[in-house]
# Entry
Amino acid sequence: MNIEEVKAQEVGEDSGFFMLLYGKAGVGKSSLSSKLGQNVLVLDCEGTASLIEGIFRIPVSTYEEVVDYKKQFVASEKYDTLVIDGLRSFEVMVEEYVCKVMGRAEFSAANAKFGDLYLKKRLIFTKFLETLIGRGKNVVIISHVAETEKVDEANDESFMFYEPNLKDKELKNTLPALSDLVGYLGVEVKDGKSFRRLDLLPSQNKVCKNRFNIKEVIIGESPEEIYGKLNDAIVKFYKK
# Structure
């Protein structure tokens, strides 16, 4: 292709987004994700989304199953949003697939000559996402939270650090880099009422990110209210 013929990329509200959503069990991650599109397809890697009424849910147990449904989703005109519910479980599926392909009995450092298992897993994991996002549809990955106690060297005080639950250190960097949104969903109690908080702002103690210039924590009493405020912020971003 002649570079003089290349057209400027156009990005709009119908471009879709890739979101990594994490938090503790029971805060409403699956419920919120089910609202992030008109027709949401959930690939349930953990069996936890079955308690949500009215969603299109498919239990999956292998990487091959996920890939098959991913291809159908991309080609489908019915669904506009894909949710992969259970990041760590999906990572294990990829590990099991790599072991099968490479003829290994298990996925472990002792069994990985020169890290070939880990390299293969990272390549497959990254390629899976790269061929899924950027197609005008929403993609959401749900994760439990991993908590680590760290020390602030400036004042010698400890604090808890929150991030998506992944074993692979390289993928911990790769997934946020690919994401348009990385959000920590939590619950707080104020004046006797419970509120959900969606934090998209990077900080010392949380891995968060957004490409939509959202500068405040989104607070609401229900997943529907959180979704409404998030959607309003994204629409406002594109109108600018």
User: Anything to note?
Assistant: Helices lie at 29-33, 63-75, 87-102, 116-130, 169-178, 223-239. The mean pLDDT is 89. The first strand starts at residue 18 and ends at 23. The chain is about 30% helix and 25% strand.
